[in-house]
Every structure is written in C-alpha cells, then in structure tokens.
Amino acid sequence: MEVDLKMQDNRLWNANYTKVWLANFMIFFSFMLVMPLLPLYMTDEFGAGKHTIGAVLCGYTVTALFARLFSGYIVDTFNRRTVLLLSYSLFALFFLGYIIGGSMLFFAIVRTLHGAPFGTTTVANSTVAIDVLPSERRAEGIGYYGLANNLGTAISPTIGLFLYEWIGSYQVIFFIGFLVASLGVYINSTVKMRKASPKERSVAAVEQCVDEHPVGPVSPVYQKKALIRLDRFFLAKGWSVGLMLACLSFPYGIISTYIAIYAKEELSMTSGAGIYFLVLSICLMLSRLTGGKSLRKGRVVQNATLGISISVFSYLLFASVHEFWGVVVSAVILGFGNGHMMPAIQNMFVNLAPNNRRGTANASMLTSWDLGVGLGVVIGGTVVEDYGYHAAFWVAALMNVIGVIFFFTHVRNSFQRNRLR
C-alpha cells in the first residue's frame, strides 16, 4: 500500500518507521535466539565435530550471501512491500524445519536454505526503513535502525540459553523463534509505504536512464552494459568499503560461532556466550545513541574512523587474554566501536548510490558482511580443529588489523571522491 505521508515527513519516529524498526528487531531476536545453541544442538543430537559444525553454519551464511547479491536488484525492481512480506514469511516458516529434526543431513539442508529468506528479508526491511524516513533525518535514522539489531542480539541469546537450561528442549526454542518471526511478518503487513513525489520519480527515472543508456566515450557500449548489469547486484563504487567490511566481519564470524563452546570448555562458563552478547549489545546500543547525533551532522567518515579505531583493540584483547574478564572487556570495547562503525559504513554505501539503487546499496553492505562472517566460520573451524581456539582468535585479530589498515590507506579517500551526497 502506497500513500502520502505528509503529516509525518519531518518525524524520525513516525508510525511506519517504528513498525519497520520493530519488525527488524523480530528478525534478529528470532535469529540470535537459536544461533548460540546450534553448535551445542549439533553436538548433543548428532555428535557433530567442529569441522561439521563450521561447515553447516557456513552454509547458512553462504546462501544468505548469494540471496543478497540478487535481493538488492529484486527490491529495487519489484514492489518492495510484496518482496518483504514474502521473504519474511519464508524466514519464519523455516524455523519449523528445525523442529522436525531427523538427521544431520536434513538439519544441514534446512539450516543452509534458511539463509536465503534471511538475506532477502534483511535487505528488503532496511530498504523500506530508508524509504519511510524523512530525507533530512535519514543518516540519523539509519543509525537508530541498527538499535533493533543490537537489542535483539542483546537479549535473545541470554533468553535462549536460559530457556534451554530451564526446559531442556531445543524444539521449544525453535518454535519460539517461529512465533517471533511470524509477529514480525504481521507488523510489516501494516506498514504504509511512502508514495514518491513527482520530483523523486523524475530523478529516479533520469538516474535509471543514465545507468541503462550511458553517453560519451567512456568505454565500448557492450563493456558498459556488462558493468551496469553487474552493478545492479553489487554497488561497484562501494567495492573498497565492502572489502574492508569483509575483513572487519571475519573475526566476528569466528568469535560468534565458537564462543559458546570455547567458554564452556576452557572457561567453565555455560552462559559465557549469553554474557558476551548481552554486554556487546548493550554497549552497541549506547554507542549508537551517542553516534546518532554525529551522523545527523553528516560526520560519516569521522564516526567510521572512531569506531574502527576502537574495535581493533577488542579482538586483540580477546586473543591475548583467556579469562572471564577478558571476554567481558572485549565485548565492551567491540560494542562501543561497532556502534559507531556500522551505521557509518551503511551510510557510506547509501551515499555512494543514487536514490533508485538503495536496495543494491543495502545488499552490497550486507553481502560484504556475510562474506567476511562466512570465511571466518570456515577458516576459523579449520584453525580451531587443527591448532585450537587461541590460534583462531589470533587469526581473527590479524584480519581485523588488515581491514583497519586498508580503511586508513585507501577507503576514506576513495569514499570522499565518489560520494554522491
């Protein structure tokens, strides 16, 4: 449904943005509710080893990555509300597949396929959020939008681990994930999309025409058309930001996957993962609240610089200190760092794209994140199996340092040269 929203044009927390924000919370609450328990579930139910756990969890990330490559184009081409509701409904239904259980193979197939609707839903939901934001509050709204991710991530792992210790049933937790995701579908079904103004439709038409019919001696026509087709799936101007983000998400893929088993085996903490994610997410929320005002003033590069500079110390601490306090302090540092870094990076992608490419911009950012996380899961699993947890955490820290160096030597200047707004 598309309507004029004139009365809400200047309000950040208008009714539709609030609904999309809540739906985003439901996505990540249901996702993170089961995430820390899956390695334990595969070990307890199927006797899976670390290599198997890494491969199965990576499958989810790989399908999410491929889905996002195409979902940006789909969201920009078809009705965004329809795409969102269909993908979100599929995302909810896949939780029922976990309940069926049966065999390791069946679980691996369900988990892998679940990544596709997750990838499409996150792209569609974030794009709709940008659409319903007033333009003058967009950078700030993008920052606050991520609070839903952080809040869901903060409380759901703790709730999931608590429920498991209390009830002792993985199936109950999977069903709760289905119910929460279904609630998100219902909330999004009530969102009213903003109708583009004549000026916005005119600008979008011109941008699309320029994309599809370039003029001038830039390159042979067939080469330009090939580039445009590729650029519909990944924002070409954002390649350096994407590569940097993949390096920065690589260590998160390792730690988020293996922290539950690491804490249980080496720190004798059955709730170690819950504490880590809770502290991390609380600090992420506090950081986003303080960074939102800075983004409103257009300080995108400054926020990214601050966040990236802080976050690097978290992974170095996690790798070097193998005590409970090291886990907690590293979560605090990472929370404050990523709380500034992630909204700024999303704004960088959006600012590199024309208005009719917002879906592609969001898909490019999330694809880059997934690529790093997926590689972290696979490589981390191999390193953990062959050399242990400590070696894997040092690999994570090293990759993060590489991403930080790349940001300061190339990404900042490249973004300033190519930004459109």
Short description:
The chain has helices at residues 15-34, 38-46, 50-77, 80-100, 104-132, 138-167, 170-189, 198-212, 221-231, 239-266, 272-296, 300-320, 324-351, 358-387, 389-418; strands at residues 2-3, 193-194. With 421 residues, it is mostly helical.
Describe the structure.
The chain is mainly alpha-helical and 421 residues long. Helix content is 82%, strand content 1%. It is built from 15 helices and 2 strands. The chain has helices at residues 15-34, 38-46, 50-77, 80-100, 104-132, 138-167, 170-189, 198-212, 221-231, 239-266, 272-296, 300-320, 324-351, 358-387, 389-418, and strands at residues 2-3, 193-194. The radius of gyration is 21 Å and the shape is globular. The model is unreliable at 3-8 and 197-228 (pLDDT under 50).
Provide the descriptors you would attach to this structure in a database record.
disordered N terminus; 421 residues; 15 helices; single chain; mainly alpha; 2 strands
What integer is the average pLDDT? 81
Provide the β-strand percentage band.
Answer: under 5%
Succession of helices and strands: EHHHHHHHEHHHHHHHH
Q: Please count the helical segments.
A: 15
- The percent of residues in helical segments reads over 70%
Largest sheet: 2 strands, parallel
State the secondary-structure class.
Answer: mainly alpha
